[in-house]
Amino acid sequence: MRDGKPTPVTTDELFAGKKVVVFAVPGAFTPTCSQAHLPGFVVNADAIKAKGVDDIVCLSVNDAFVMGAWGDNANAEELTMVGDGNGDFTKAVGLEMDGSGFGLGSRSQRYAMIVEDGTVTKLAVEVVSLMLLQDKVALVTGGSGDIGGAIARRLGAEGVRVAVTYVGAQAAAAATVADIQAAGGEAWAVQLDQRDPEAIVACVAAVAAQFGSLDILINNAAWNIGIPFPDLDALDAEIWDRVLETNLRAPFLLARAAAELLKAGEGGHIVNISSAGGISPGSSSIAYSSSKAGLNHLTRCLAVAMAPQVAVNCVAPGLVEDTRMAGRLPDAIAAGARRQAVLGRVGQAEDIAEQVMTFVTSTSISGQTMVIDGGMPGSSDGRLPVYADAARNLGAVIAKRGFGLVYGGASVGLMNEVAEGALTEDGEVIGILPEWLESWEVAHRGLTELRIVESMHERKAQMAALADTFVVLPGGIGSLEECFEIWTWSQLSIHQKSIGLLNVDGYYDQLEAFLDHTVNEGFLRSTHRQLLLSESDPQVLLDALLAQTVPSAGKWEQT
């Protein structure tokens, strides 16, 4: 469409001498295309063109008038809307789709390609869902929230008739319903306080009465309040009960109430929305982590109890951007989650919705929990917040004393925490990272200096050469291997530098007992044992390390 009129265009006019992104969809104004595909290119048009793209073409087997109206409706001024009326282009590239089963005739598959001067250099074709969920019925609890709303809209886009629940956020639930209806779907909102067992039974019955069946149950609704783990007194019985009743008991009661309806269809699905905090403690409260850990196991139990008619799975999000929950997190925690994500990004609500779609369209997956967190590498923060706090405090103490920090160069795990602690106090931080780890995108880019080396051996050699003393944080086999190697070097007089364990919360107590046992059994000299210091407080440990005089091999021989 040009100047309000359909205008013929040739492939030479579109592609000759240009770099063009083409994305094609089955039809204009269809739910999924209107909700996800076209808006995604509209929002990211400037970013795409900034990469040297001359034009973005949206193509569909529709007439030019329909494509023009769709573009106007979506504010797609930066895109070229092309109607492949007879499907000639679509057939020429071999990406047509038979939509006659849905009354659509011949259509284009969903795909995107990069065309450079008339040559296709990249092509991505979406697997066609064929609306496998058309006319199914889903109940999404907490559909008024960010994640629940995204799940409800995604299901609606696939032809699912959706019921969403809310407690007090009626307007937000109505907005979710309106979005689904505006895209051509069918949706309905119902109030539910899922702490009330009778209300749960009534809600499931109301959904069945409204839509005539129930095929999918999404246990998304949850309640939480932030209470630091060490503050046990603040987590009283009333809060504990409310969290567990909402987050764990209610999903079971909903599954029980919906069981016969779910079994009556061609294959029912339950998807529980848990949390990464249910796998690794460290979320906003002990009660919340415990409730989500219970939900993970409830998923496995229900998968057994409701087989083979109903598949039960679980999605466990980490940090989810642009949600109210993410907004409540302290900036440091949210920033840490972003840095630790190997993929360079944490989850979006739409990512959770896509994983739900994977589960509810599968006939071979049950009893599984999928974590959506951007990918966590091997380096870990540990199970308790006290480890991260201690590492960050150590970094701050080092910087405040005017010392520099040399460490492994990563933006994940306790390594990251100690670096951040030092950087917060304007300390000098040198990171040394093997190039293969850099390829995992875990390098910390905010250091005083980041050195990329070829191997782990070179990394350890440079760290040993630059450091004047060594502190071992709580860690796994990598930390232990480095500890014992640098300790052995001291024993062999390769260096005369002190080394100590930061024994946070008794983490190394059992290791120290074992080392004392090796002395008692005659495998380790007491002089050598004394070379490895241990303190729980960073200040005290640094004082001890600086005061220690490491003996030479000659002195050992005299003992």
From TrEMBL:
The entry's family comment says: Belongs to the short-chain dehydrogenases/reductases (SDR) family.
This chain belongs to the protein called: Thioredoxin domain-containing protein
Query: What PANTHER family would the database entry show?
Result: OXIDOREDUCTASE, SHORT-CHAIN DEHYDROGENASE/REDUCTASE FAMILY (AFU_ORTHOLOGUE AFUA_5G02870), SHORT-CHAIN DEHYDROGENASE_REDUCTASE FAMILY PROTEIN
User: Residue limits of the Thioredoxin domain?
Assistant: 1-145
Among the record's GO biological process terms, what is one? cellular response to oxidative stress
Keywords, alphabetical: Antioxidant, Oxidoreductase, Peroxidase, Redox-active center
Gene Ontology MF annotations: hydrolase activity; thioredoxin peroxidase activity
The catalytic site is made up of C33 (cysteine sulfenic acid (-soh) intermediate)
Does Oxidoreductase appear among the keywords?
yes
Q: Which top-level group of life is the source organism from?
A: Eukaryota
The record ties this protein, via SUPFAM superfamilies, to: MCP/YpsA-like (SSF102405), NAD(P)-binding Rossmann-fold domains (SSF51735), Thioredoxin-like (SSF52833)
Any matching Pfam family: Redoxin
